[in-house]
Amino acid sequence: MTETLVFASAVDPVEPWRAALEALLPDVRVRTPDEIGPGDDVRYALVWKPPVGFFARHPGLRLVTILGAGADALVGRDDLPDVPVARLSDPEMARMMTHYVLFAVLRYARDIPAFEAAQRAGRWHYVHPREAREIRVGVLGLGELGGAAALELARQGFSVAGWSRTPKALPGIACHAGPDALIPFLARSEILVVMLPLTPETRRLIGADAIAALPRGAKLVNVSRGAVIDEAALVAALASGHLGGATLDVFETEPLAEGHPLWTMENVLVTPHLASVAIPASAARQIAENIRRVRAGQPPEHRVDLARGY
Ligand code: NDP
Q1: Which residues are catalytic?
Q2: If you measure from the C-alpha of residue 156 to the centroid of ligand 1, how many angstroms do you get, rounded to a whole number?
Q3: For the segment 185-230, what is each residue's pLDDT rounded down to a tens digit?
Q4: How far is the CA of 114 from the centre of ligand 1 (A)?
Q5: Which residues sit with their C-beta closer than 6 Å to ligand 1?
Q6: Position 9 in a domain
Q7: Peptide bond preceding 26: is omega within 30 degrees of 0, i.e. cis?
Q8: pLDDT of 78 strictly over 90
Q9: Which ranges of 35-169 would DSSP assign to H, the alpha helix?
Q10: 238 and 116: one domain?
Q11: pLDDT for position 297
């Protein structure tokens, strides 16, 4: 019997997902909400921030897959059915994220923003490069994406520390865990990379006190969710010079509002939430495998714990 997977995303084009999933699952039709008709038996959903009321229209769902890694957009919804929710777990997504983090950290480690400013002023501005092992990078969150980025930074020779909720052991990385370890961890991080999920515990975790604990002139890279950082405290620290710069891919409100101070700050690089995206060719294999598992009565892999928030 043919089943239907409903695909809902305002940012991802459906066609590559349709092609990749239908090739792997010949008895599953991939439909957008507009394409669904009375003959569709909607069993699976692949979603990125679906509109309010979306799930109530599909009472036969057996598996919801998030078209990404963060579950925050689904937490707290009252229309979510009582079925497993899985995230994408895709090495290609981790690779794309690692590239972004590596770019942002290398840009600071090699003083590139200072050279960009000097060039605009027509000024020859020599800064003697530091060795990577002297540069202390901190990664907040050592999950699938955070762990991969931290390992690559260590492979590049940086002095890397990481912080997570539960204790971790990653080769070449000084691992710290739990709330008491946060401030000492921040105090040693001259480049801080934020890779935490947005949960009730992490919302605005990086506020004025946490930012003050960073060394003066520290650089911050946020690729997780905007609301993990108190944006007003961030702007104040960038304006005062306590923070030397920030590379921001995510914001409390997206798109970043017209006229927001972050748009025009000299020491800020803004990118529009694309540090990593879901890649159909590789991620479809995981989704297909989970559908096979659900059909066989097995629990899907890479489940999100909605009570925990990630
Ligand atoms: P995971 O869920 O795999 O890992 C989360 C990590 O954060 C874990 O190490 C976890 O600790 C840690 N953590 C969670 N809560 C706390 C807490 N209260 N205190 C300390 N540590 C905590 O996430 P990923 O690495 O896959 O992704 C991270 C985030 O990146 C996603 O949630 C998403 O929001 C964002 N993202 C952004 C993208 C972009 O384009 N900008 C693209 C994809 C993802 P523990 O290991 O102990 O569980």
Answers
A1: 225, 273
A2: 22
A3: 999 999 999 999 999 999 999 999 999 999 999 999 999 999 999 9
A4: 31
A5: 68-70, 97, 141-146, 164-166, 168, 195-199, 201-202, 223-225, 249-250, 273-276, 310
A6: yes
A7: no
A8: no
A9: 91-109, 112-120, 144-155
A10: yes
A11: 97
For the chain, give the mean pLDDT.
97
What DSSP state is assigned to residue 261?
G
Nearest atom, ligand 1, residue 141 CA: 7
Q: Give the residue-averaged pLDDT of 63-67.
A: 97
What CATH number is associated with residue 67?
Answer: 3.40.50.720
Q: What pLDDT shows up at residue 177?
A: 98
Q: According to the model, what pLDDT value does residue 163 have?
A: 98
Question: How far apart, in whole angstroms, are the C-alpha atoms of residue 172 and residue 141?
Answer: 16
User: How far is the centre of ligand 1, averaged over its atoms, from the C-alpha of 196 (Å)?
Assistant: 4
Choosing from 9, 100, 145, 252 the residue with most ligand 1 atoms within 8 A of its CB, the one to mutate for a pocket test is 145
Nearest CA to ligand 1 atom 7: 141
Reported ipTM: 0.99
Asked if residue 262 lies in contact with residue 248, where contact means CB atoms within 8 angstroms, the answer is yes
Nearest CA to ligand 1 atom 23: 143
Nearest protein CA to atom 22 of ligand 1, as residue: 165
- CA–CA separation, 210 vs 233, rounded Å? 10
Tens of pLDDT, residue by residue over 239-279, are: 999 999 999 999 999 999 999 999 999 999 999 999 999 99
Residue 194 CA neighbour count, 13 Å, CB half = 32
CA angle (44, 47, 287) in 5-degree steps: 55
Percent of the chain with pLDDT over 70: 100
Question: Is residue 163 within 8 Å of residue 185, measured between CB atoms?
Answer: yes
User: How far away, in angstroms, is 131 Cα from ligand 1 center?
Assistant: 29
Domain presence at residue 215: yes
- This prediction has a pTM of 0.97
Ligand 1 centre to CA of 143 (Å) is 5
Range of the domain at 33: 3-90+278-296
